[in-house]
Amino acid sequence: MAEFDVIVIGGGPGGYVCAIRCAQLGLKTACVEGRETLGGTCLNVGCIPSKALLNATHHLHEVHENFEKMGLMGGAPTVDWGKMQAYKQDVVTGNTKGIEFLFKKNKITWLKGWGSIPAAGQVKVGDETHSAKHIVIATGSEPASLPGVTVDEEVVVTSTGALSLGNIPKSMVVIGAGVIGLEMGSVYARLGTEVTVVEYLDAITPGMDAEVAKAFQKLLAKQGLKFVLGAAVQGTERSATGAKVAYKLRKDDSAHEIEAEAVLLATGRRPYTAGLGLEGAGVQMEPRGQVQIDGHFQTNVKGIYAIGDAVVGPMLAHKAEDEGMAVAEVIAGKHGHVNYDVIPGVIYTTPEVASVGKTEEQLKAEGRAYKVGKFPFMGNARAKAVFQGDGFVKLIADKATDRILGCHIIGPGAGDLIHEVCVAMEFGASAQDLALTCHAHPTYSEAVREAALACGDGAIHA
Ligand code: NAI
After folding, report:
1. Element (DSSP H or E) covering residue 308
2. Which fold has domain 156-267?
3. Does domain 3-143+270-331 have CATH number 3.40.309.10?
4. What is the pTM of this model?
């Protein structure tokens, strides 16, 4: 039995970052992880492998769409799915090994196995029980199930199975037009799969700025994705060539069926806390299954904390990382803090979609007076030069004070561009502050500045 200052349960982005920060702050730290590799869902079967497949298929799409226009002649390459999978795996391995290295460097003990909490101050891993002054639950989430849909991870898959299908299916039904459905749907559409996305609501990507969501759907449709909106999936059934998906249109309750070689269930994730023994330890839970915490990540049981997908809030790796650092600081007696008003969200399709802060819809609901500055990438020379003129930047500022309230981008490099606005928001900047900042030409980021100009006297190139 070893004694630690902190034991973090879970080695995903929340957990491993927390462990590193704890060690940096001089705390004797262990991290419990039952997978063969560190990095959790994100590195092993989520953010990172999906980005490898998005990258490979983005290049394929470029060959088909734009190479000839640039005078690059010759046939499109053939796809070696096995090799693409190996590339994806190399990317994953490189990253997971990197975290193992960081653990060694920071002298963090990796307790291999699945952990549980027999009592406050104790963590059981396998047959051994370790003691810790502080325990951080960072156990993440798992795909949510849907009544009537039986996942076999071969034909009917979650995001995990979708990353390593045995072959490229001719057709795929994606259930849920959220982030996972659209990212993975894009991957397969670019590989030639006929992709149909079936979504319960009347718009894709719920919660996203409605104007962006509309433009996004149009662009995805142009890339070949088909959408059935307002459709509640009732269940799936295996067929000779794949599976049938039954759904009802909400507008008239009519029943329909669609068959495909593969089905991706992407209707959200739920916190993963099974087997931790939280009930026995007396830890209070939220009605929707998350661990209940206070403003300092502390549960109702002294010395037990929780972060990331296991607690309330957006299920995003970077939100978990920030909470991991903050809770480490709280444990070390410092002032850990996360600004939940400035957490960016990114969808890594082409074009990328990114947002931070309030949407127009939210501001309307709050009855706040705001102004919008919009700038299309069609007016951005750099974007046009690389055939990325679709999309726009939409900056929202307070009508009276000009303080930036939110930004929504669909276009090239959106996932990186958004951070200039995040920093501005952290500093309480006005749209004019952004507009008065010199931006290098020609860059995509000029579109952000132009949107800021559009909040004032007007953009130059629109
Ligand atoms: P999501 O919550 O983003 O989207 C789920 C979609 O399924 C919603 O549009 C919902 O209306 C729809 N839906 C629910 N029930 C349905 C039914 N019976 N029939 C048809 N449609 C139905 O969930 P998703 O895409 O599974 O992602 C899970 C989590 O992982 C999210 O919190 C997401 O933010 C996170 N994630 C983030 C990524 C990123 O930041 N790039 C990438 C992948 C996942």
Report:
1. none
2. FAD/NAD(P)-binding domain (3.50.50)
3. no
4. 0.97
